[in-house]
What does this fold into?
Amino acid sequence: MTSSQSASFFQSTFLNLRRDFFSSKIGGTVSLLLLTLLIFVLWTAFDWAILRAIWLAEDHQLCKLDDAGACWSVIAARWRLILFGLYPYDEHWRSALGCFAVVLTVVLSCIPRFWSAKKIGTIWLLGYGSFYILMQGGIFGLSSVSIDQWGGLALTVFVFASVAVIGMPLAVILLLMRRSEMPIISQTTGVIIDVVRALPLLTILFAAAVVLPFVIPGWMHGDKLYRVILGFALFFACYQAEILRGGVQAVAAGQEEAAKALGLSYWHRVSRIVLPQAFRAALPPTINQFVVTFKDTSIITIIGFFEILASGAAAFGSAEWGFAYVEVYVFIGLIYFSFVFCLSRYGAYLERRHTIATR
Amino acid sequence: MRRMKRTLATLAVAGAMVLPSQVMAEAGETLKMVQERGTLLCTGHNGSFKGFAEVDDKGNWQGLDIDLCRALAAAVLGSAEAVQFVPISWAQRFPAIQSGDIDVIIKVTGWTLGRDTDVGLQFSRPYFIGGTQLVVRRELGATSTADLDGGTVCVEGGTSTERTVTNHMQALGIEVDMVPFEKSEETLAAYFSQRCDAYAGWGPNLAVVRNEAPDGAENHMILPDVLEMEPTAAAMRQGDDNWVDVVNWTFSTLLMAEENGITQANVDEIRANPPTPALAKLLGVTPGMGEQLGLSDDWVYTMIKEVGNYGEIFERSLGQESVYGLDRGLNGLWSDGGLFYALVLD
It folds into this structure.
């Protein structure tokens, strides 16, 4: 950039700023006020979180002083409890690797290069297989760890990924059944979807975890965790099916008719014409649904799972750290933020990709 | 928090009600199941309940409820390690015991009429008594609730605590201003910022609160009067009398050991040279302690050796050796002015 170019750049920026924020007296005053407020809030947060913060675990006595800021000692002392929950201490590396395996699986299956049934299938089989072997143990010389002891981030991520991977195909099946030309099927599916959507998630999870064992035969019980994941996936699928139905309605009816006229079979019409366009149209609410589902995983703490929010509660739930709940919640908040933010950015990337494709 | 507990409990009871039929356990079934499995399934917590079930830096459970689970495991299986703590929420505990996810509830569970009948539970003898109490700043100079005339009390609104305090003050004929708050953190913050003279809550929680005081625990004291008592007991499935016996005698022998001065440290010594025939029997030197219950004769010895007597458990989790520094008070032995006593060995 030459000097004259940069000068004109600054000039135009300045002019834009003046036009947008200081165009009138009232506008200017409001802008200034809000700016001051913003700076004040940011400074207070910065001062609390960084400048006056206590960082080392052994300094936790300092946290009780009047001028002490954030007490990150609690994270330094208890981060392993927050991330891994009740998983045996010496085996935490397994939980970390397992968590990594699931995240890697999700990330890989988000990359368009791997979008074929064979590749996706292999990735998920490998990812889940290694997660299960690492977490459960019992072979390859790994000690066996029961599901009751799974917890923290690994559990949160596992539940989310499982719900997504079971829920998505289920949603497509529900969608196709809902659109069936046979009234019995389409109406029954409609009723199922409406009933599930009419129930709170907590009720469904509670029923899956607690009530179901009383009404189904013993050999079908499985572990509580898997029952809950299935219940959660059903809930997810019902919402997602309706989101996709919205997407399908955005596809012009003429397209399917044209495909029929060309003699394409039902599966070809659905998989090549309707669904790809429906997914594209329904992308923003789908990403939304994923974000909501990720955050909803914290509900499983109510039915006794030690996911990251529960292990966080355990981290500040002791005599030494009882006062430091804000810090723990901030830490967990940042973890949630990093996941959800990645998800949102990925959604934005997909939309850009689609815009290019349709141009 | 107690209100939320109540909502969840209602949900849980509703859950238990829709079950096709109340599950009745057969006598001896639970003990057999536990011994075949080789581990006791006991209640942990989804998070932490300070002093009763909390988690240390390495993810190990500790606390009064946890140690009683360990004692039971030592009694039944011969090792305090043979217990698995299933993380369970308040709402889940009753359905979980009915469905067999756990063998016993030892989770600060109050013995109430509804739970004893409708929910289909059977309770052990109480192992802990907590009451509604008040904590005040020491500089106030109050020594009992009656000294609070004209003062203010911070309390969680709409809870049984609020009602209890109001009733109690009316009975005493003194006037206090009740200042209700929505959440326990708010209530606590208000008390610490000197908005109120006193904070009302469940006794053991007050010990925790006192410990979290920003100006130091020593500046706050818990008033000795108990406004309302709530006995907590272990809960089991209805119908398995043998299992109830096992749990009752576990608690009773923990107390008996304390009455007789048997501790983790000296149990070997006393066992080698029992001063009375009763203690010889208790520690399994002479037979007669285990068979009726379906346990080995030396189960009490194993239990004391691995976890200690009731007093040791209490001091370690809540009492003077812990950060909470809770007084034994009502939870002491009858000989020390408390409410606890051992049953008789014949």
Notes: Chain B has two domains: 2-129+231-336, 131-228. The CA atoms of residues 29 and 240 of chain B lie 7 Å apart. Chain B has 13 helices and ten strands.
